[in-house]
Design goal:
Shape: elongated
Largest sheet: 9 strands, antiparallel
Radius of gyration: 24 Å
Number of strands: 9
Number of helices: 2
Order of helices and strands: HEEEEEEEEEH
Helix content: 25-40%
């Protein structure tokens, strides 16, 4: 028991501080990057007793190329007839806005606003607002917050033990 108490003081304080700071840095980096790697938008339809789901993917390949792919599932199975072959477009990001073009020399068209978590724009086929989400960024954000909380709780517990030991309450 004495060994656990001794570990819970200084080593645990150092480990939990490092854990907290490391995941705070990861959270800041995830929030500050201009875009994630793959965004997806899903739309579900039901007609005549059948269900269909259309999923569109925007995958950023490098600093210039963006691959756009669409996949349609009818009753849970991918339909090759309704799915779209990948299209490679060129992109640039200016002031938080995503611009795409068919070629590097063509005129760029604004798609919407972009950050590391989502692309917000207007669905051209329905004229409704849509948000494409980057699942990887959301997972990294949630894990970072969870480990920051764990590190903070451990640090608070460790500092409490250190203070109580200094005051002579715990022997």
């Amino acid at each position: 028991m004495k060994g656990l108490f001794k570990f819970s003081k200084t080593p645990l304080a150092i480990i939990s501080s490092v854990l907290f700071v490391a995941f705070m840095v990861v959270l800041m980096v995830v929030c500050l990057i201009p875009h994630g790697t793959t965004y997806q938008y899903s739309a579900k339809l039901e007609f005549g007793g059948q269900s269909a789901e259309s999923v569109t993917y925007f995958t950023f390949k490098n600093d210039k190329e963006l691959e756009i792919k669409s996949e349609t599932k009818v009753n849970g199975e991918v339909s090759e007839d309704l799915s779209m072959d990948p299209i490679v477009a060129f992109y640039k990001i200016e002031n938080g806005k995503l611009l795409i073009a068919e070629t590097e020399d063509a005129e760029f068209m604004e798609v919407g606003t972009i950050n590391s978590f989502e692309i917000k724009g207007i669905n051209p086929s329905t004229n409704e607002a849509m948000a494409m989400k980057c699942n990887t960024s959301y997972v990294l954000r949630d894990l970072s917050i969870a480990f920051m909380v764990i590190g903070g709780v451990l640090l608070a517990g460790s500092l409490t033990l250190i203070i109580l030991d200094k005051k002579g309450i715990i022997k």
